[in-house]
């Protein structure tokens, strides 16, 4: 191997570095044959700067991710964060303002607001992530079927359009009217409301990919459908779906809060930020803290998810910056 | 072109049919016996059976769906279980406040968000841009009712500049009507503004990097006219699209805003109906909102030809 | 052009709805804006027993008799009455010059039809119907009621405040089937109902009826002259207490029927507002168990719950921190009234969970699930429901908490089916103190099995004692009978009283004439 046979085009060679051959060589020790060094095409990066460079270039993902991590830890470690049973009633100690004993005060039944807020993180995160995950899976399935199977496309898209015409909150509220309030039912209701959007998105990707030459080539050479989907289509849907999933997560958390606010969401026996605010809303003029703390945490979490979504979108595909 | 319009209008029919099917299924699958609810507390099982037969609750799904659809197409949305008034009457009584709220919010949001987005795009990367986009993300993140309570507390209770609740019909004066709608419109519009500002900025950025903008600048046009006349016109299509799609946000948010500010509109009607399981009213309102949403987006679709001469059908 | 016409068209469409237009008010018209306790969703005070419907009903319809603040029935629409020597025949003569809102004169046949409809729905009315021989109009202003047995409480029944009140309607409306709602709201009361401005869930409007002839006597509750001192009353339905409170403070409404006690300190601080007790007769909180199905078909299990519960917890949850607003209630009758009794009440509400658990084990609880219905949209039932759920869990019950709304509760509680098939084990409610003074008009204390109120308690000693009360000749005999009723009802746990509590009302300082009572009486109220 001689240094002159540079395997890479010139433009890959970094400027400013001397070509390897021009470096003065020390005489080799006797009896030892040393291979000529490979050309330095890519400079070795200093490891130290990597993390801070990443942080500088993608502040949104980092901030959002950190916030989200904090909330996640709060939810997981809830029993050890100085909380008491969030459903323990103590009517004799109702509506106490925040103090050393009750960090966020107590609500109108004497329950500790701090504990309820910390445990409430579990519900909001559960609802957010479950809806995002379930809606993505279901939407993926529907979108794939609709995109790949032509004769189903028309029907499925009409149904999806129909569902999308119903404003999502109304849809979720109407579905909740059919059943009893519970975390499970809230998740199902919001998921159903969010599936159409994912389905549309996936179908769009599938349709555009179907026309690509490599997909046509795969079809021509007899590759079966599942393989095509797995190898060519799924990887391309992953990026937009992930971004969409984060937005669905954020939207689901807010929808849960709204559902609880109007009384159609999670019942108060399970604290969720939405229903803590709903219960405290009659007293907002005198005991604003009951609404304030869950509102701060909810906003913070939704903000974090939105930031992560924005960051992912910018990182994964800058061309998507103009899509909603 | 007319053919396109005709086809688009026809395309809304299956969409509305799906909505109708969903809405009808609500009553069909609802737990509890509507006949028992209508019969009342003291009714005997015979009374209930009599009412079941009168309402035709024993017939198969498709038959009832067909009859119900026929009824809807003739403008009869059924009768409320709790008030015994026709649903159309109940909706008619509440249309004005909601439409007023939506219009004021729409105007307010567009007037604020579009310039904000444009400025953010113009000064992309600067402090203003980051500030606007930061505010936009926060606008998405704070729940609607929290914003409402905070605004009501500051502007209505503490400062006393605006009324804290209620709705005044426009016949009683323009300012009273507007005064009751300012706080709700700001509350409702915040999310909408965030959405529109983001999309405006993104679209403007895209447009501003196009060659024809550079040509215009090269021709010597100053920043102002270049931005607003040439660029905005080209950015109009996605912006108007998102305004249309975002109306779903408005409708959803109106439900909460009307509750916080005690506006006697369709949103509150929906909430009350949901809590009481007044299915005919729920059906009527969902149908109506969906229909309006479909119409608005249809109108926006059709308006593309006006906005962008390059789009021809 | 398309854009503009579209926008203009939609704007015109929305703003042109005439129904919500308010008429131009005459200069100086006095309008009283009142926030009622709940939404006026329907308006048939005979068909529905909701308090809010009854309260609105008193404005539009008048009665033959009306109780005064001492709960003695006084003549209202009746000019004179006569009882035969054997006390079996009552002859009533109506006052001259009474007219309906549409101008027609009030006639005895209207009264007969109204009473017939009322008797079909009212428990005391049903008792009267059971001993009725004949009820007929003898001429335009006279009607006669012949009974088979004497009924000393007849006038009280006609003038009582508990729903359904004996309100008088024109014959054509009164002929509506008692189990179907009326659709026309015409009465002879001091106010007319302005039907085309009614927006259920948002607003109800009443206008003073110029043709009303108030009596000469001074007014006291439902008795005496009902003089309207304002021209128009608007009921503004508020979605929540916070909005109502803000509106009252801002002067956007004038009078709030039931501010929640947590907001009362805020209202008291406001220099423009008055705050006072709404009804000295207060309220009795309650939860009822279903005697038909396990586990509460076992009286010992019922008693275990009644003993273990803490009335203080319930009351604090409902009224907050103000101790002057609640009292323990070891019984079923209104404190402060002549028939109040604590007989047998030693074991009610001891607040001892450990004791409750022991009693539960002794009673042989086998772990059956308890389906507990809690209406979330009524502050009182929601607060009680939360306390109950906690109580039952701590006692070791297997609780199935069903969070629903007041309307659904109203329907579900009528079901006698097993809880797993749409029935129930427990639901929460409350009664106005005016309704729990004595067994007349108090269906919730009856224990006649199938014919009793929801829960269907079947406790013969209670019924015997109630019959004794109806036949009691004097107050001493009545008290003795009520003591027996109380003790027997506690023993069998007809329902569990959670305590006695008072509520507030609040009004702006420029409004005067507001009195304390079971109904927000609007006559005599004026606005400066």
Protein model, in words:
- The complex is a heterotrimer of chains A (324), B (313) and C (528).
- With 324 residues, chain A is mainly α.
- Chain A has helices at residues 49-57, 59-76, 113-148, 150-165, 168-178, 183-210, 213-220, 225-261, 273-280, 289-316.
- Chain A is flat and about 90 Å long.
- Chain B is an all-alpha fold and 313 residues long.
- Chain B folds into two domains: 2-73, no CATH class; 90-307, MetI-like fold (Orthogonal Bundle), CATH 1.10.3720.10.
- Helices cover 78% and strands 0% of the residues of chain B.
- Chain B is globular and about 85 Å long.
- Chain C has 528 residues and is of the alpha+beta class.
- In chain C, 30% of the residues lie in helices and 20% in strands.
- In chain C, helix 10 (311-319) packs antiparallel against helix 12.
- Chains in contact: A-B, A-C, B-C.
- Chains B and C meet through helix 2, helix 5, helix 7, helix 11 and helix 12 of B and helix 1, helix 7 and helix 13 of C.
Which labels suit this protein?
heterotrimer; B: 313 residues; mainly alpha; MetI-like fold; 2 domains; C: 528 residues; alpha+beta; Dipeptide-binding Protein, domain 3; six-stranded mixed β-sheet; 15 helices; 20% strand; disordered N terminus
Please outline what is shown here.
The complex is a heterotrimer of chains A (324), B (313) and C (528). Chain A has helices at residues 49-57, 59-76, 113-148, 150-165, 168-178, 183-210, 213-220, 225-261, 273-280, 289-316.
Mind telling me the CATH superfamily name of the largest domain in chain B?
MetI-like
Helix content of chain B: over 70%
- Which architecture of one domain in chain C would the CATH scheme give at its second level? Roll
**What oligomeric arrangement do these chains adopt?**
heterotrimer
* Largest sheet data of chain C: 7 strands, mixed
Shape of chain C: globular
Helix content of chain C: 25-40%
Question: Mind summarizing the main beta sheet of chain B?
Answer: none
The total count of strands of chain C amounts to 21
Broad CATH class of the largest domain in chain B: Mainly Alpha
What percent of residues of chain B are in strands? under 5%
What order do the helices and strands of chain B follow? HHHHHHHHHHHH
- Kindly identify the CATH topology of the largest domain in chain B: MetI-like fold
How is this fold's topology laid out?
The complex is a heterotrimer of chains A (324), B (313) and C (528).
Chain A: H1 49-57, H2 59-76, H3 113-148, H4 150-165, H5 168-178, H6 183-210, H7 213-220, H8 225-261, H9 273-280, H10 289-316
Helix pairs in contact in A: 2-3, 2-10, 3-4, 3-6, 3-8, 3-10, 4-6, 5-6, 6-8, 8-9, 8-10, 9-10
Chain B: H1 2-29, H2 34-39, H3 45-55, H4 61-73, H5 87-122, H6 127-141, H7 144-158, H8 174-208, H9 211-218, H10 223-260, H11 266-276, H12 279-307
Chain C: H1 2-15, E1 31-35, H2 51-60, E2 65-67, E3 73-75, E4 78-83, E5 89-94, H3 108-121, H4 123-130, E6 132-139, E7 142-147, H5 154-159, H6 171-174, E8 191-193, E9 203-208, E10 232-236, H7 241-250, E11 255-256, H8 264-269, E12 273-277, E13 283-289, H9 299-308, H10 311-319, E14 326-327, H11 353-363, E15 369-375, H12 379-395, E16 398-404, H13 406-412, E17 426-432, H14 460-471, H15 475-492, E18 496-501, E19 504-508, E20 511-512, E21 526-527
Parallel strand pairs in C: 1-10, 1-11, 15-16, 15-17
Antiparallel strand pairs in C: 2-3, 4-5, 5-7, 6-7, 8-9, 9-10, 11-19, 12-19, 13-17, 13-18, 14-18, 20-21
Helix pairs in contact in C: 3-4, 9-11, 10-12, 14-15
């Amino acid at each position: 191997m001689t240094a002159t046979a540079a395997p890479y085009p010139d433009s890959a060679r970094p400027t400013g570095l001397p070509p390897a051959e021009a470096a003065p060589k020390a005489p080799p020790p006797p009896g030892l044959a040393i291979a000529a060094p490979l050309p330095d095409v890519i400079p070795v990066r200093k490891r130290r700067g990597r993390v801070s460079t990443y942080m500088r270039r993608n502040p949104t993902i980092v901030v959002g991710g950190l916030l989200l991590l904090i909330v996640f830890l709060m939810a997981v470690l809830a029993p050890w964060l100085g909380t008491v049973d969030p459903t323990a009633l103590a009517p004799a100690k109702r509506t106490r303002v925040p103090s050393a004993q009750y960090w966020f005060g107590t609500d109108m039944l004497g329950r500790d607001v701090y504990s309820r807020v910390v445990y409430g993180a579990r519900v909001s995160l559960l609802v957010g992530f479950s809806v995002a995950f379930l809606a993505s899976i279901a939407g993926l399935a529907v979108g794939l079927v609709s995109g790949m199977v032509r004769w189903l496309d028309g029907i499925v898209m009409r149904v999806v359009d129909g569902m999308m015409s119903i404003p999502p909150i109304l849809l979720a509220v109407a579905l909740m009217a059919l059943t009893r309030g519970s975390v499970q039912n809230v998740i199902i209701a919001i998921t159903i409301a969010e599936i159409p959007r994912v389905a549309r998105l996936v179908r769009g990707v599938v349709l555009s990919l179907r026309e690509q030459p490599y997909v046509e080539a795969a079809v021509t050479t007899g590759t079966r459908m599942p393989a095509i989907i797995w190898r060519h289509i799924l990887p391309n849907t992953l990026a937009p779906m992930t971004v969409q999933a984060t937005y669905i997560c954020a939207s689901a958390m807010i929808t849960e809060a709204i559902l609880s606010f109007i009384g159609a969401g999670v019942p108060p026996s399970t604290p969720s930020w939405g229903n803590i605010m709903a219960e405290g809303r009659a007293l907002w003029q005198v005991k604003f803290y009951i609404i304030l703390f869950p509102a701060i945490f909810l906003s913070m979490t939704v903000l974090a998810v939105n930031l992560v979504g924005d960051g992912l979108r910018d990182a994964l595909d800058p061309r998507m910056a103009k899509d909603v | 072109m007319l053919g396109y319009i005709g086809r688009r209008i026809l395309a809304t029919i299956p969409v509305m049919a799906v909505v109708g099917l969903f809405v009808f299924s609500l009553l069909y699958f609802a737990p509890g016996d509507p006949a028992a609810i209508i019969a009342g507390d003291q009714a005997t099982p015979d009374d209930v059976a009599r009412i079941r037969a009168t309402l035709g609750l024993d017939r198969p799904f498709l038959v009832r769906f067909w009859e119900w659809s026929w009824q809807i197409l003739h403008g009869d949305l059924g009768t409320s279980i709790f008030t015994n008034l026709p649903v159309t009457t109940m909706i008619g009584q509440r249309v004005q406040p909601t439409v007023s709220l939506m219009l004021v919010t729409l105007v307010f949001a567009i007037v604020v968000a579009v310039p904000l987005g444009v400025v953010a795009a113009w000064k992309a990367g600067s402090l203003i841009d980051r500030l606007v986009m930061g505010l936009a993300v926060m606008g998405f993140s704070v729940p609607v009712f929290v914003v409402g309570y905070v605004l009501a507390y500051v502007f209505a209770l503490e400062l006393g500049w605006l009324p804290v609740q209620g709705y005044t019909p426009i016949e009683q004066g323009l300012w009273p009507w507007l005064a009751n709608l300012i706080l709700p419109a700001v509350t409702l519009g915040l999310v909408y503004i965030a959405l529109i500002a983001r999309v405006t900025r993104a679209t403007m950025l895209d447009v501003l990097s196009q060659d024809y903008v550079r040509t215009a600048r090269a021709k010597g046009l100053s920043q102002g006219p270049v931005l607003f006349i040439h660029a905005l016109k080209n950015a109009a299509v996605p912006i108007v699209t998102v305004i249309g799609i975002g109306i779903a946000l408005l409708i959803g948010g109106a439900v909460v805003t009307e509750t916080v500010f005690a506006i006697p509109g369709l949103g509150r009607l929906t909430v009350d109906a949901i809590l009481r399981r007044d299915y005919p009213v729920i059906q009527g309102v969902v149908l109506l909102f969906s229909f309006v949403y479909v119409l608005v987006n249809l109108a926006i679709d059709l308006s593309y030809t006006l906005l962008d001469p390059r789009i021809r059908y | 052009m398309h854009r503009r016409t579209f926008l203009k068209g939609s704007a015109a469409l929305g703003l042109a709805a005439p129904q919500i237009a308010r008429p131009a008010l005459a200069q100086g018209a006095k309008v009283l804006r009142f926030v009622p306790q709940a939404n006026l969703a329907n308006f048939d005070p005979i068909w529905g027993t909701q308090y809010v419907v009854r309260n609105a009903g008193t404005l539009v319809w008048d009665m033959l008799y009306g109780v005064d603040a001492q709960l003695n029935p006084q003549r209202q629409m009746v000019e004179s009455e006569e009882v035969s020597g054997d006390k079996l025949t009552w002859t009533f003569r109506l006052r001259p010059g009474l007219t309906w809102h549409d101008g027609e004169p009030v006639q005895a046949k209207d009264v007969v039809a109204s009473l017939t409809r009322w008797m079909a729905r009212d428990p005391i009315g049903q008792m009267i119907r059971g001993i009725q021989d004949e009820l007929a109009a003898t001429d335009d202003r006279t009607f006669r009621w012949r009974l088979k047995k004497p009924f000393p409480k007849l006038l009280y029944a006609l003038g009582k405040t508990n729903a359904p009140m004996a309100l008088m309607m024109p014959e054509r409306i009164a002929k509506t089937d008692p189990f179907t709602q009326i659709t026309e709201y015409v009465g002879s009361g001091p106010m007319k109902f302005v039907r085309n401005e009614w927006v259920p869930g948002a607003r109800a409007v009443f206008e003073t009826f110029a043709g009303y002839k108030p009596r000469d006597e001074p007014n006291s509750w439902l008795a005496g002259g009902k003089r309207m001192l304002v021209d128009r009353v608007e009921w503004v339905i508020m979605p929540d207490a916070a909005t109502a409170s803000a509106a009252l403070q801002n002067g956007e409404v004038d009078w709030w029927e039931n501010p929640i006690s947590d907001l009362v300190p805020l209202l008291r601080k406001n220099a423009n507002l008055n705050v006072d007790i709404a009804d000295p007769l207060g309220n009795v909180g309650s939860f009822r168990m279903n005697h038909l199905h396990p586990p509460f078909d076992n009286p010992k299990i019922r008693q275990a719950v009644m003993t273990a519960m803490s009335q203080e917890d319930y009351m604090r949850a409902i009224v907050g921190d103000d101790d002057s607003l609640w009292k323990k209630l070891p019984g079923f009758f209104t404190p402060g009234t002549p028939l109040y009794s604590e007989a047998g009440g030693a074991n009610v509400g001891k607040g001892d969970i450990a004791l409750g658990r022991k009693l539960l084990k002794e009673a042989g609880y086998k772990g059956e699930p308890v389906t507990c219905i809690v209406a979330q949209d009524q502050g009182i039932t929601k607060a009680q429901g939360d306390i109950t759920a906690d109580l039952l869990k701590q006692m070791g019950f297997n609780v199935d908490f069903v969070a629903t709304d007041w309307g659904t509760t109203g329907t579900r509680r009528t079901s006698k089916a097993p809880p797993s098939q749409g029935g129930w084990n427990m639901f929460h409610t409350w009664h106005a103190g005016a309704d729990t003074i004595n067994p007349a008009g108090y269906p919730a204390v009856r224990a006649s099995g199938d014919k009793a109120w929801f829960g269907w308690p079947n406790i013969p000693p209670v019924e015997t004692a109630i019959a004794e009360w109806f036949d009691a000749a004097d107050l001493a005999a009545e008290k003795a009978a009520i003591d027996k009723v109380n003790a027997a009802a506690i023993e069998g746990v007809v329902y569990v009283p959670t305590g006695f509590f008072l509520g507030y009302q609040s009004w702006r300082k420029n409004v005067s004439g507001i009195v304390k009572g079971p109904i927000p009486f609007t006559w005599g109220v004026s606005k400066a």
